[in-house]
Design goal:
- By secondary structure, this protein is of the alpha+beta class.
- The protein is 27% helix and 27% strand.
- It is built from 2 helices and 4 strands, in the order βαββαβ.
- β2 and β3 form a beta hairpin.
- The longest helix has 12 residues.
- It is globular and about 35 Å long.
Length: 75
């Protein structure tokens, strides 16, 4: 299995409950290895995943269900 990672910026005012739901929704996807928000920068979400099982675009679309303005760093 290959592992890639992406960093997604979300709205910094998302509630703790919403952040938890984002992590749960993303981590439940086939091919996602780990999901976590930065403790220092609550707007940064890092996801490690298998690009042969799920795409970064699919992950971003899942996050955008909670924050329509979420963006992948580097795009």
């Amino acid at each position: 299995m290959n592992i890639a990672d992406i960093l997604i910026h979300i709205h910094p005012e998302l509630s703790v409950e919403q952040r938890t739901k984002v992590e749960e929704d993303v981590s439940n996807q086939n091919g996602v290895v780990s999901v976590h928000f930065s403790p220092e920068h609550q707007h940064e979400l890092t996801i490690a995943y298998d690009p042969q099982s799920i795409t970064s675009e699919t992950i971003l679309n899942i996050v955008r269900q909670w924050d329509k303005d979420a963006v992948m760093v580097g795009l």
